Amino acid sequence: MYPDKLQASAGLANNPPGKKLDICYRLSIQALKQGWRVGGIPTTELVRPSPGLYKEILLSIVPVMWTLLSESLLIRARSDSV
Description:
This protein has 82 residues and is mainly alpha-helical. It has a domain at 1-9 and 17-31 and 50-82. The protein has helices at residues 3-9, 20-33, 51-59, 61-81.
């Protein structure tokens, strides 16, 4: 399946631009559900992050947790309806 079809099947075709992290997480979850291999790319940070960057990193946890919670609730709702 091509990325645009994967994005459409994940229900992400018309999301607002502020949801970029959420879209990435949902695409990864959808790819895993469809049996795709998903991997990370290891990196080494050579610069020391600024306090603003630490704040951005911490705030990025919120969309991750929201996405995982909503996906788990969707799975639970589907299993309860069957």
